[in-house]
Amino acid sequence: MNVVLKWCLRIVLLTGIWGVPLMSQELSKESKAFLAARDADAQERMTFAVRSALQGNFSLLNRVRSGMLQDAEPPSGVRVENTRVADRRIRFYFPGVVSGKAIVLYLHGGGWTLGGLEGSARFCGDLAKVSGLDVATLDYRLAPEHRASAALEDVLAAVRMLRERGYRRIYLAGDSAGGNLAASAAGKERSAIAGVILYYPVVLAKNDRSESWRKYGTGFGLDGSLMEAFNESYAPGALANDPAVSPLLAKECAHYPETLIVAAECDVLHDQGKAFAELLKKNGVPVTHRTLSGTIHAFMTYPGMEQAYQEGLCLAVNFLNRKENSMKQVITPESIVRISRIEVDPAQLSEYLTLVTECGRESMAKEPGVYLMYSMQEKAHPERISILEIYADRAAYEHHIQTPHFQKYKQGTLKMVRKLELLDQNPLVPEMKMKEGAG
After folding, report:
1. What whole-number distance in Å separates Cα of residue 114 and Cα of residue 116?
2. pLDDT tens per residue, range 334-360
């Protein structure tokens, strides 16, 4: 903990009095040392391996993949659980004896073609230890064997699994291509995600012709030619224009979760990450974009860039602590947290989903005491829908169920709802009768 606090103090000094990063004019000492120790042709060999795989020869790429899976032991006091979601591996890091109510799902980088959950083992263990939150990391499907949006589908399946395990607040995080998947999954899930942490993310799956791409395209840890090979592996052709693949192309970001973007200054992806931050701000999304001076791509993964790693870790911990502390202030002993299950007539499911989505969005937008209205379908039985509601207090709850838009939802769904079951509520208040005879 003292180590992290030390680096947090360094961040204050490095960012100046007003919190504005003091930008360097050259690489940091540790970035220079990392590049000097790296094989001069490492990027070219990796690019050749990826392009060979695009032609059907995976021998070189598989050799690179196996060489990157260096696991790390968890910190003392952090318990690890390895399990599966569908046919993919997922690993949990628990800082406590029992699981908590909040979790960070971390997605590794590697251009969608490399890496695995082992590559993010150190960070996930450290994050669990220092933040006190549960952390999970997913071994999603890789390209070019599995192109877009296979990896994203794996992430969304993992999010569903975390909900089923009882997590009420899910944060998404990732670096590089993993940051892309986190950003894309947040775009799909929107207000259901508690927050997003992105390290030097890919948010446009093609050459953006930006100044940072031109300036840092060769010799700075991630060559532009390699990034283009990664893009072609995951999202060839028109796939790159899909906002689910390139979040920077999203036309709207309503209800997108609060986001932290930690950028490397000397990185081909720097400018597109900055543009994504500007897009979120333009749409009213709370976002923080921090550039670490003199850093290069992948400082959270590759060993040897300890100062940048600790600063990146500290920024994530500060973000999570602030979000969790604000939630603790929001959820008081007077708050009402309700979990219920609705069973809908399958023939009217589409109409029901339209009404419940409209009601939920209007409630959270217009009623200060309504903190969360979220519904989730069961995968095997989509007509079964679980609903999570959080109210400031009983007064907010009673006011909400009398509002015109809720009454519209209630009256409009009477003929659609076959069954209502209250699963959990604290504190207990009289149950709403959605349908005559409903439990």
Report:
1. 7
2. 888 888 889 999 999 999 988 888 888
